[in-house]
Amino acid sequence: MCGIFGCIIKEGAAAPLIHQSLKRLEYRGYDSVGEATIHEGKLHIKKDSGKIDEVHKIRNLDDLPGNIGIGHTRWATHGAPLMVNAHPHVDCEGQIAVVHNGIVENFAELKLELEGKGHVFQSRTDTEVIAHLIEENLKNNPSLSLAEVVIETLRRIEGSYAIAVISPKEPDKIICARNESPLVVGLGENALYCASDIPAFLPLTNKAVIIEDGELVTLSLEGIEIRKIATSSLVMREPKIIDWTPEMAVKHGYPHFMLKEIHEQPVCLRNTLRLQEHYLDLMTTFLDRAREVFLVACGTSYHACLAASYMFSKLAFLVTYPVIASEFVEQHGKSVNIDSTILAVSQSGETADTLAAVNAARQRAATILGLTNVIGSTLTRVSRVYISQQSGPEIGVAATKTFTSQLAVLAQLALRLAKKRGKVSQDEMDFIEAKLKKLPEIVEAVVKNQEEKVKDIAKKYRDAKVFFFLGRGISTATAYEGRLKLMEIAYVPSIAFPAGESKHGPISLVEQGFPVIFICPKDETHKTVIGNIMEMKARGATIIAVIEEGDEEVKRLADDYVEIPKGVPDVLSPIPFVIPLQLLAYYMALERGYDPDKPRNLAKSVTVK
Ligand code: M6R
Known about the structure:
Elements: E1 3-9, H1 14-24, E2 32-39, E3 42-49, H2 52-59, E4 68-74, E5 89-90, E6 97-104, H3 107-116, H4 128-140, H5 146-154, E7 159-166, E8 174-179, E9 184-187, E10 191-195, E11 207-210, E12 215-220, E13 223-228, E14 234-235, E15 240-241, H6 246-250, H7 257-263, H8 265-272, H9 277-289, E16 292-297, H10 299-316, E17 320-324, H11 325-332, E18 340-346, H12 352-363, E19 367-372, H13 378-382, E20 385-388, H14 401-421, H15 426-460, E21 467-471, H16 475-490, E22 494-498, E23 515-520, H17 526-538, E24 542-548, H18 552-557, E25 560-564, H19 574-577, H20 579-591
Bound molecules: 5-amino-5-deoxy-1-O-phosphono-D-mannitol (M6R).
5-amino-5-deoxy-1-O-phosphono-D-mannitol binds at residues 298-301, 346-348, 351, 354, 397-399, 484, 488, 602, 605-606.
């Protein structure tokens, strides 16, 4: 999730404006920054790795000449956060500059093809292929305009993008386009802007044109022209007046980052499902070879590991040990050796307990694999192989979108390993893969259709003193995660157990009206879970159930229920089933008068042991 910006102004220098606008987009990514302007028929570029303020201190981002330019603040997806990978990227001749937010899925094939034609690449990014492909297309079609050539180029690009392109060949234009990554155009008095998000230009203008998927826009001081990429046909669209405050704009109109991030999950999942195959394959090879695999993490990331242990076992027949990182050294430190493999999962890649476990295992020559959201984090530096989960920056302290992305990566790994080991029939594999692809839509439907219901549930139970969260099988992980969310955001003491374990002690807490949340997908555990619901009801518990649509049996037993679309395989069920629990924590926090983005005593990244 990077941020792009571009502007043309009638008078004055574009660079300081780009710099300030990128600052307002820094919440979208902050590992590198860059700007390009056009002046006297030449491109001028400054870029480097580091936060905007750090780079500005060393390089002075404001002194690039020219009244037209583009800029980028980066959240690395392809290639480490190094200067060479920072945007803008240029073609061989330095005549085309491109900034990009998204993932070019077919970049490897395109790069090979372009290298075959003599193009020389500088970076390890997917974006650079766009600059070279535009160059190639311009060479082959010298009579076409820059916008026409960019259209030609984008017809060959698969994946997601919001791009902005400038070239001294047409020094008074910015060409921008979008597919599955956000892009808005701002109409000022004597200036035009394009950006990933409205906050970038909101202090400059509140007149915005929202660009849709598959559209390309040409910006010039004469105005804007929108065309469909597929057909080149013109699109007419009226601007909207944005009445958000700057604070509301950063949150995209949502009252809190947590809610925004819950709603972002379909988009994040789409990105997570676009992981580069060779990293998945490489990690799968390591997992396949391992004698023992520990899945090590803290908090929400640990719950992803717990769910993953079911995925690996069910799909690939691989036994893995999920371990809470702070316990790892005491529990397994002595037995870890050269044959051990540690898959460390950490959104931030900086959690001290996780890194301590990883370091202890490294000292005993274990193989370290990493799954993280932050390329360039310590975890990526100490891992033999790492995968970036592609969730984009998460600002709410409560992990939401990063949890479901982690699960989606781990599911892909488990599926690959299953394939490699030949453990699952082709039909089952096809079914699960098809459902995996559908998850963004399923999650979208859950958020859309169940949010109001969850809001009512939060209202009804706002004064509850305690909650039980129960699930069986992989839903145990979902129950643990639901409980963590409710505790950390709404400060409701909660207890989570595998449902089967509740009768071994915790059930003694249950009395009339005690709220128990059951996670009940219609998987192999369904019948037994119904037995557990009956046990709880017999003792006066109030039942809130997260069920599959049309699960009449549980509906009859439950006092309240939330429904998830039918047919999600058990190994994927935590992804949609956790959504109502995230929403419940959020709305309970509001009901109880707390700020969900700033829970007391917590930090986003816990860098002390
Ligand atoms: O950055 P990490 O994934 O390593 O962070 C681990 C935990 O600190 C984190 O998940 C924490 O539990 C969150 N507050 C959960 O919402």
